Amino acid sequence: MATLSNTFTLGRLSVAALSDGAPMRALGGFFAGVEAAEWTRALGITDAEQPLPFNFGTFLVRGEGHTMMVDTGQGARVRGQFEGGGELLVRLRELGVSPSEVDAVLHTHLHGDHCGWNVNDDEAGVITFPNATVWVAQKELDYWTGSESDSNPQSGYTRSRIGPLVAAGRVHTFDGEAAVHAGVTMIPTPGHTPGHCSVLLASGGEKLLILGDAAHHPVHLEQHGWIPGVDLDPEESKRSRAKVSARAVAEDALVTGGHFPIPTLGRIRRTEGGYRWEEVATP
């Protein structure tokens, strides 16, 4: 049984890692061009086809006058396909949170597994978080709503998730690094998608860096050149992993990612040859 929800504190904030699906899957596709013997050794397995825990994750952040979501999962389309699939709204109800309470949605990027519940297909396509301002990088929005993504097989679903929010005037964009609320900073980490961002939270002297898909596994923070096959710009992705690793060290921030199994928190330490991931217990 996978853990589908875990809540911890960060200064004056409550942060809940929430799953919208936790399948077991082989991870070879996240190490394109890397010899199987090399990446499997780093992950502590011997068979490249061995299923490992994976997560389609989101984060609920409460405190400092806000109730925010970081990404919105897969949506109802995956319900029943794997443990917890399409159950994000169930996870919110378990925490006593109504979608109408959410006042901000922060998108790391607009792949369908990160914006799926922007629209509630169980309720005739209504906007799931009707009172939320939706923050997304201008480059990311331009890519998915423009002709450049016409040939991307994910574009149809993504456009169905973001289009209604644009039409409703709920989407706010930004360029570069941007403080969208006090203690909430969007940090550009492109490569996986053109406008991908990570989210830095700060409260009470503590910091948390939510990576989005800048890393699909903690080992990506040690091996910046191990590129997931889904990254649109591998070289940019590599630079972003180096950037976000250095930022995590400089900020002494806790680090987590939406695809890391729940609960996974760590810190990144600088070493003579690069960086090392150190897992830490949930605060």
Overview features:
alpha+beta, 283 residues, 29% strand, five-stranded mixed β-sheet, Metallo-beta-lactamase, Chain A, seven-stranded mixed β-sheet
Amino-to-carboxy terminus distance: 22 Å
SS-derived structural category: alpha+beta
CATH topology category name: Metallo-beta-lactamase, Chain A
Query: What order do the strands of the largest sheet run in, or round the barrel if closed?
Result: 1-2-5-6-7-10-11
The residue fraction in helices comes out at: 10-25%
Q: How many strands appear in the DSSP assignment?
A: 18
CATH first level: which class?
Answer: Alpha Beta
Mean pLDDT: 97
Strand content: 25-35%
Order of helices and strands: EEEHEEEHEHEEEHHEEEEEHEEE
Please describe what this structure looks like.
The strands form 5 sheets. The protein has a 7-stranded mixed sheet with strand order 1-2-5-6-7-10-11. Strands 12-13-14-15-16 form a 5-stranded mixed sheet, covered by helices on one side. Strands 3-4 form a two-stranded antiparallel sheet. The protein is an alpha+beta fold and 283 residues long. It is globular, with a radius of gyration of 18 Å. The chain has a single domain (5-280), classed as Ribonuclease Z/Hydroxyacylglutathione hydrolase-like (Metallo-beta-lactamase, Chain A). The longest helix is centred in the C-terminal third of the chain and has 18 residues, at 234-251. 20% of the residues lie in helices and 29% in strands. The protein starts with a strand and ends with a strand. The chain contains 6 helices and 18 strands. It has helices spanning 36-43, 88-94, 112-115, 138-145, 155-167, 234-251; strands at residues 5-10, 13-19, 24-25, 52-53, 57-63, 66-70, 104-106, 119-120, 126-127, 133-137, 171-174, 178-181, 184-188, 197-203, 206-210, 254-256, 265-271, 274-280. The mean pLDDT is 97.
